[in-house]
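> example.struct
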């Protein structure tokens, strides 16, 4: 993508045109277009270009989340109404410029403050002049824009305030603007307009302060707008997920779940939020003092807050550490066949995040997690399984496993034989009494009970469960001591992913292989292998 092919002239007034989006685009369409841009204009290479792209994306994303094609009604370019409005605005701006040149900025500013009614251009001029006339008022610029939005609901003022909100660097100024917004904006505009300010404030003050201020100001907002409040709640809950107290998070999650159909946020976004919240509930079990787990936890906290440049940088660094020090990664993950609930809770938001980062950083992002085997992949998996089978048979654990299966088979045969011979024994010793109806009935009942008992002993509480537990323990030891090392080598040397290998084993009948089912079960619960496989895709 060349610099000349990017329509920079469409920013900031036409973000959809900048991303070359078709009418009726959705958030996934926007995300794909945004990712395509920032794969070229990376924040570390071209920070100014990235900043402009990111601002345009955030604005469109917010509009879609709040169910707005545009934040406020605006006539399409080229229409008669738009041409008239633009002509009036140009004339008004020219007249203001002449007044300022003749009378000075201070006099014009004072006159515009008193003017009623005020036009969009008037509010825009007040915002600009305030930087000169009221340099000691840090929120004068934003205050005039908010007043304009309260009076005019104008799209251009909204766009300007959206950019301005990201530039404020002072916490006190941010809080002052939020107070002013609560006093002038109605609910249908308040949540959309102030979301960026609240998100920035969440990174600057402790949660208790943030919550108290928000609840105080929200009580001052006029009107009600449930869809807008839900969209705001979804975004702020995610940002505060790892910082807020449990009761507050669960209250917000319950509100979203009850009214999800009334908000324009898509179901997949709520699903992602639920996955992160599930990890939040179980993170104390995941954090056991292991440094690898602590780094993963920090990354998930970043993912919840949504600072993409930092997320990408930390994610890629973590992937490289997994490749450079795989032993530390594998030691951190339990790889038990029964699974680990905390690891599973970690895995799903991590997987979603890995795909998001891939879309922003690597060209073949769509191949991440695919189950399609490349050419030559199936023979490589077959050779790996043959090697596993051979090494298992040659190992002490494999020998004990085979011996145990033989012993359990002998026990099974003895048990079945004993139960089957019991009726013959009874008939031989008590057959002369079979003419007695009561005894015949008793004999029938005894045989039925013996058959039922045989089934229960063999299938439910006896030989089969013992054999399964024995085999599971043997397979677990073989996986940790032998199979996992071979699997790591296969993934490292062939660049096949764990998903591709699992799919191949599950969907192909490899002749002569007896351990594939146990191997597959352990692979599916081994999050160390899954993390390593993803890391190779990024580091490679």
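> example.seq
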């Amino acid at each position: 993508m060349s610099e000349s092919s990017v329509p920079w002239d469409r920013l900031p007034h036409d973000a959809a045109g900048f991303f070359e989006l078709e009418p009726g685009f959705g958030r996934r369409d926007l995300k794909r277009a945004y990712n395509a841009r920032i794969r070229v204009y990376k924040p570390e290479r071209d920070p100014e270009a990235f900043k402009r792209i990111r601002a345009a994306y955030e604005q469109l994303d917010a509009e879609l989340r709040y169910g707005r094609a545009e934040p406020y009604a605006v006539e399409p370019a080229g229409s008669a109404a738009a041409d008239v409005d633009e002509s009036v605005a140009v004339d008004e701006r020219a007249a203001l410029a002449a007044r300022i040149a003749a009378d000075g900025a201070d006099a014009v500013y004072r006159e515009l403050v008193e003017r009623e009614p005020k036009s969009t251009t008037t509010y825009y001029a007040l915002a600009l002049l305030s930087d000169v006339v009221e340099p000691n008022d840090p929120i004068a610029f934003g205050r005039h824009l908010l007043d304009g939005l309260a009076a005019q609901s104008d799209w251009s003022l909204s766009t300007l305030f959206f950019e301005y909100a990201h530039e404020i660097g002072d916490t006190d100024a941010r809080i002052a603007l939020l107070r002013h917004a609560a006093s002038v904006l109605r609910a249908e505009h308040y949540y959309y307009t102030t979301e960026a300010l609240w998100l920035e404030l969440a990174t600057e003050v402790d949660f208790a302060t943030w919550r108290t201020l928000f609840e105080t100001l929200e009580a001052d907002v006029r009107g009600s707008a449930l869809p807008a409040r839900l969209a705001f709640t979804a975004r702020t809950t995610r940002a505060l997920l790892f910082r807020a107290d449990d009761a507050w998070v669960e209250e917000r999650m319950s509100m979203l779940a009850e009214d999800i159909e009334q908000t324009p946020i898509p179901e997949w976004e709520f699903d992602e939020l639920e996955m992160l919240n599930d990890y939040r509930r179980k993170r104390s079990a995941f954090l056991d003092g292991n440094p690898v787990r602590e780094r993963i936890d920090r990354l998930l906290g970043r993912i919840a807050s949504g600072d993409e440049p930092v997320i990408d940088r930390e994610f890629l660094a973590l992937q490289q550490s997994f490749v450079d020090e795989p032993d530390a990664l594998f030691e951190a993950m339990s790889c038990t066949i029964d699974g680990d609930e905390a690891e599973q809770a970690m895995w799903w938001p991590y997987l979603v995040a890995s795909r998001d980062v891939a879309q922003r950083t690597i060209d073949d992002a769509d191949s991440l997690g695919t189950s399609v085997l490349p050419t030559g992949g199936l023979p490589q998996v077959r050779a790996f399984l043959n090697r596993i089978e051979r090494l298992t048979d040659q190992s002490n654990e494999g020998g004990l496993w085979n011996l145990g299966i033989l012993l359990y088979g002998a026990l099974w045969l003895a048990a079945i034989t004993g139960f089957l011979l019991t009726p013959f024994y009874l008939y031989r010793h008590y057959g002369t009494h079979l003419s007695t109806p009561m005894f015949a009935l008793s004999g029938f009942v005894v045989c039925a009970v013996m058959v039922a008992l045989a089934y229960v002993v063999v299938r439910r509480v006896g030989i089969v469960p013992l054999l399964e537990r024995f085999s599971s323990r043997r397979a677990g030891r073989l996986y940790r001591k032998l199979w996992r090392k071979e699997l790591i080598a296969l993934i490292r040397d062939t660049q096949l992913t764990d998903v591709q290998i699992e799919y191949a084993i599950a969907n192909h009948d490899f002749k002569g292989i007896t351990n594939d089912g146990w191997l597959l079960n352990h692979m599916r619960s081994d999050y160390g292998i899954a993390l390593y496989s993803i890391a190779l895709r990024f580091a490679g």
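> remarks
Confidence is low (pLDDT under 50) at residues 70-88.
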